[in-house]
Amino acid sequence: MSPMLDVSDAVRAEIGEAEAERLLAGENAPGDYDCTSCRARGNTGQERTSTVLFVGEETAVLAFAHAACIPSQVVTVAEDQLQGAVRTLSAPESAPAEPPAAAAVPSPAAEPGTGQRQAVLGITCGQVLIDGTARSALVVEPTGPIARPGSDGPGDDFLPLLIEQGFMPVTDVGLLPAPVAGWSVLVAMGQLHAVFQPPATPGGQPVAWWQAHQPLAVTEGWRTAAAKNHTVVVYAAPAGSIGQQPREDLLREALEKAAAGGVLVAGTMPLTGT
After folding, report:
1. pTM, rounded to two decimals
2. In terms of DSSP bridges, do strands 49-55 and 191-197 run parallel, antiparallel, or are they unpaired?
3. Are residues 82 and 162 in the same domain?
4. Is the C-alpha dihedral spanning 161, 163, 166, 172 positive or negative?
């Protein structure tokens, strides 16, 4: 019986028509697999499965995911990150896996794309209960003020710049923020890689607004909620508004305090990749 595979036009264009047909015929498709999104087991003969092609500068890796988690697509990943994933996939099964990071531990980040000042964006992963549903969330807070490009003033333009991009002020953390057009969150190989903003020019490629120096491990619950809802809620607040909260209940308290103080913005973004 042929596998129940979805091969998107983008994946087909990358791997070639002949390879795509071999996959669909079952010649090169696995039976059992670990979903590259939720990490749970799947079977290509029993459930609809998406082909996901991770592409680096020199390396490409074809992975599989439950179609209910993500659609078939091509995901661009930094070459060193992809090589690390290849080493992990090819390691002996007896090798111990690295434990996942705690849900509310901040990760160091690259310089933000919203200003010229040398500030660093810290990012915290956690789940937030919204309208009775557990939602995967990212909380972004810079280490210092963010100046508007071209400005030499001492002010902090972090929130105004994000509002201009479509983020909306949060007055109630219990309500789902509106979608932010053109933005997305990249999770590849079960780890958080980047938050993308729209391209600088029409027809261009999305630009990494935040990118992890090393892929950030997230909890199984965070991955499951993100895959179920196909979205991630991204909150942002000025430096010093949220802080490094060790637990999700304390993180929510900090979010509610920032919202009450009028210094919290947010947007809902689609999950890109896995």
Report:
1. 0.65
2. unpaired
3. no
4. positive
